[in-house]
Amino acid sequence: MITTIVSKPSEVDILILGAGWTSTFLLPLLQEQDIKYAATTTTGRDGTYKFKFEVDESHKDLEQYEILPATKTLLITFPLKGKHESTHLVNSYMKAHSNSAVNVIQLGSSGIFTIPGQEIWVTRKSKYDNTNPRAQAEDELIGMGGAVLNLSGLWGGTRQPKNWIDRVAATKEQLASKTSLHMIHGLDVARSIIAVHKNFSKARGQRWLLTDTIVYDWWALILGFSGQLDEENKNMERENSQIKWIGELMNEQEVKALPRSMEQLGRCYDVREFWAIFGLMPIRGRLSPLWFLPRVNSTMGLTRVLKLTRVMGLTRAVGSLKQWGKGKLKTNLFKKAKGTTICEEDRPQEQCPEGGRQLVPAGYNPSPVEHPSPTIIAVQNDNVSTPTPPAPISRPLTPMPRDLEPLQGFNIPRLRRRTLYLGNKIACVVCIEIQDASQFPERPHHHCPYKSPVCRSCLTKSITCAMKSSFWLNMRCIFCNAQMEYKDIAAYASKEDFAKYDNFLLQNALKDIPNYRKCLSPTCSFGQIYPSTSEDQETMEPLINCSLCGFASCSYHGVPWHVGETCEEYDAKRGKTKAEKKSEEKIVKSTKPCPNKECGRLITKAGGCNGIICICGCAFCWRCGVAYSDPDQQHGERCGEHNLGI
Description:
Helix content: 25-40%
GO molecular function, one term: transferase activity
Strand content: 5-15%
Protein name: RING-type domain-containing protein
Domain RING-type: 424-646
Structural class: alpha/beta
Keywords: Metal-binding, Repeat, Transferase, Ubl conjugation pathway, Zinc, Zinc-finger
Number of domains: 4
Pfam families: IBR
Distance between the termini: 57 Å
């Protein structure tokens, strides 16, 4: 049995050691700029290389460096501590790749500049704590010609400063000690990394300090965020704690206004040098709590209300906004404006004179719905000929099952379908943009019986949302719930989404072919059918090599080839950890299989009713597992559907 890798992966431009939070911002930029990259994680998940850093001089440790691709820039995102760690990592990588030269970037922390007696204005050349283990490892790397980016507080994505308040200011004493704060968004970190990669000669052998160029006052941020959190949670928890404490501290310390002066804050970072040398400026600065804005209704959104001003007129829109906090906005939107007309396709024809148009009576209030949507209204202009909208379709709407709503990205079936016609203009019921009629397709899909009050742009976005979920294989019309066909998706999807959809269909078909395996190299997307070694046509050699790049994989375990070990030795050594066993038990308890014999996927339910629809299209009861479309089965006696005779 061959136990060595036949060929190494191809070279990349950037190798990311530790694909964590930073990568969520970095990878899209690398793809956009056609920069070849590869990444590692400790588990090898999501097509990354499995790599775990340890100071180990053994041959086994060197093997994990050998499996990594050659690179021009090595980005280290995890902290190295103390002496020798930087030397060990860089030398091990270079030794595994024939001592080829590599540029090394280390992401560090600006915390090393927090020392007693520090000057007010701190630059990258200011004194720092050289006894800090991270600083020692960074100094070692700089001595080897590497570059260190000392980052201030990271935010963006899952990291939101407002969620830190209860931890950093749990008491008045803690709050009193809070002065300046420096931040940088993940997107600006990613832009900085790429700039250093492209201009490494400017960064070589130096330490750089990075912020978004703004010095924040902790008190000002906490004051704003506390009010916002209380508004969101509908309580006064922080009004009686952090907000109250800030007022007391301002009086005690004679602070006249927020933010405090630089002298009062102390430790202010001057980072102009980095941005000037690399020709950049941060684009995600000015962290703002926006506490002064009224709380946005989750269904409507502030943007949607502001867009209504184009239709409603500024005076009525401002009046509605004033009532926002009093819960009267829904009523205001339905009250009559002078000369206002509205078209409602979902109202019975006999109630709508003039071919479906109905004047909204003064004081008209619609019955409340679970997820109300704003009605679109407009002042009628006698100089504009407004065509009569099409007559309402007599067929009742088929509501989309609750479990399928995330698939489309919009709760369209729950909107009361009202369409505004202004000459050859139509207002989209999703984005509320008034657009030319040519921007609206005749039907959402070619079999749908409904006219489409949704613009092409929103239909395209709904497909984008579906492509990001597990429902891409079962995309449905947002009005009649019929499954969309290939030509419908081709008509409305963006080029990128349609190419992705095409590839998904191909991979979904290929996975059912015996002995088909996709290359596991993160830099290769090739796949092939490997020859069988038995009559059943489903057994093949454990070691398989990609015909395109030569990457070696194990056909039995679906992982990169375990060098130096047979499959039996790999199984014996790996075993199942307690965490894996616990995870398997949790999966068994929290999931149920799809009753479709050709599917059988394990499904979990996050909430809602007991009606479940699998991505294969099979609808079934969560409680007893009976498929709604199976006439030979009946729900169990303890099931709530039993007495319905389904």
